Amino acid sequence: LPQRTHSYVNLSNTELTSAQTEVLSLGCKFSYKPKFDSLKKQTELEILYGSLLKMENNEIITIKPEIKPLLRAEATKNRDFKHSIILTKELRTVCKQLKDHP
Q1: DSSP class of 12
Q2: For residue 75, which of 5, 12, 42, 83 is within the disulfide window of CB 3.0 to 4.6 Å?
C-alpha cells in the first residue's frame, strides 16, 4: 500500500507531535474557530453603530430607528454554523499551541 502523505510541509526546525501532525493534515482549508464570544460581538456591533452615527451626522447615510434593537438582537446570535465534529478537546488544545508557537 502507498504510504500516507501529509497535506503540509514543515519548513521549521520544530519536531511536530503526532497530534500536531493530525491537525495540520486536516488541510489548508481547515480553520479553527475559537468559542463564540458574545461580549466581543456586542462590542464590535457598538463600534459599528458608532460609525453609522458618524456617517449619519455627516449626512452620508440615513439610519432607520429600528436599527439599534436589531443590532442588540444580532449581538446574541452565533452565525457560525460550521461547527467541527472532527476536533476533540485535545486537538483544540493543539490548535491553540500551533497558533501561539513563534
Answers
A1: S
A2: 42
